Design the sequence.
């Protein structure tokens, strides 16, 4: 009778251990989110997200908080490909003399090298969004994680002759504390965001009027704004938005200030 009993106990232990392992694994992965604040204030950090404070990880410029009279916005763009609107975004930034940071994938560098060189030559930061836009929070092997970033930096150097600045944005905002530890060792700053909206689906674009109203309503000091430059709506309204922000007293910073 001992053997069946021992087998049962082992099976019972196994059943209880599986959820614990799954829970621990899931808890290590985080999809970036935040608690929105009204009245043009920086969003609140959820307690579950607080571990990012121990690393070079930024979702807003805390030096330029709600009470700082120096009002600054950081324009950042996640760019995986070109459809004509990325060039339009660059035209607007050049016309308005405003800097931006573009988080790019391998495809954009290889397929649109001239466009990426234009970003660099016009004073924008071209930063790391990984080679393949996979869920990096699920990549627990250090060598595999580093390959996604170092591989992109190598492609950028090969195509442009420049070194890629060490700013990283996790694809889809998925990250883990293990990721942040590796990034810290690699000398990277992780750039999240304090405002974004549903602009990525080219077949379901928000109207220009609604998008502009949404963006202006969410504006706050120290804002790191995430936009997708393939969005026609974004390309249509960016110039007007920049003018409105300037009228409100905002300037446009670069990630080097963080």
Sequence:
């Amino acid at each position: 009778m001992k053997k069946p009993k021992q087998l049962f106990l082992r099976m019972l232990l196994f059943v209880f251990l599986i959820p614990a392992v799954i829970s621990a694994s899931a808890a290590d992965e985080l999809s970036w989110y935040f608690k929105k604040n009204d009245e043009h204030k920086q969003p609140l950090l959820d307690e579950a997200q607080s571990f990012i404070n121990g690393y070079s990880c930024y979702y807003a410029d805390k030096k330029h908080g709600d009470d700082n009279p120096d009002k600054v916005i950081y324009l950042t763009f996640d760019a995986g490909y070109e459809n004509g609107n990325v060039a339009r975004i660059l035209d607007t930034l050049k016309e308005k003399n405003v800097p931006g940071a573009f988080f790019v994938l391998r495809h954009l560098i290889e397929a649109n090298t001239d466009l990426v060189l234009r970003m660099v030559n016009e004073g924008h930061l071209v930063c790391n969004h990984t080679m393949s836009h996979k869920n990096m929070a699920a990549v627990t092997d250090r060598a595999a994680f580093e390959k996604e970033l170092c591989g992109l930096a190598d492609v950028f150097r090969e195509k442009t002759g420049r070194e890629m600045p060490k700013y990283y944005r996790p694809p889809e905002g998925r990250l883990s504390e293990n990721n942040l530890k590796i990034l810290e060792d690699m000398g990277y700053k992780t750039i999240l965001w304090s405002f974004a909206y549903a602009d990525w689906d080219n077949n379901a674009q928000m109207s220009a009027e609604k998008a502009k109203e949404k963006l202006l309503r969410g504006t706050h000091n120290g804002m790191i704004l995430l936009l997708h430059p393939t969005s026609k709506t974004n390309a249509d309204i960016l110039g007007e938005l920049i003018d409105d922000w300037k009228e409100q007293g905002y300037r446009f910073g670069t990630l080097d200030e963080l």
